[in-house]
Amino acid sequence: QVQLVESGGGLVQDGGSLRLSCSASGSDFSINTMGWYRQAPGNQRELVAQLSSGGDTNYAESVEGRFTIARDNAKNSIYLQMNSLKPEDTAVYYCKALIQWNFDISRTYQYWGQGTQVTVSA
Fold first, then answer.
1. What separation in angstroms does the CA of 12 have from each of 44, 78, 112?
2. DSSP structure string for 70-110
3. Residues 82, 17: contact at Cβ < 8 Å?
């Protein structure tokens, strides 16, 4: 199966920056979309940013202008540059990928990473 591994989370002061990374390991698949979601205690998991294979981006209103998603297709990786962080950005951030297996391109499959903690102190 596909394995997604996130890194880059940590503790940062209000107004600081972090860069999250997510790499997809495995073989015999192609990526349709990859994105970042987050979940704070007591809240539902929400979309932060995503990239399609064609390069289209989608951002949550709460992070528009502060966060930037980027990709490296050769490495099957995505990155989330987070600037001007606020305490309300505190959450576990999850990487998600929609992939197609080379032997069955008629269906897509969803995979999640285990998450990385981002904590922003006031």
1. 23, 21, 25
2. EEEGGGTEEEEEE-S--GGG-EEEEEEEEEEETTEEEEEEE
3. yes
pLDDT digits (tens, 9 = 90+) for 85-112: 999 999 999 999 999 999 999 999 999 9
Between strands 77-82 and 67-72, the pairing is antiparallel
Q: Measure the CA dihedral 46/52/58/63, to 10°.
A: 60
Dihedral (Cα; 105, 29, 8, 37), 10-degree rounding: 10
Tokens of 41: 């205690």
Residue 19 in 3-state DSSP? strand
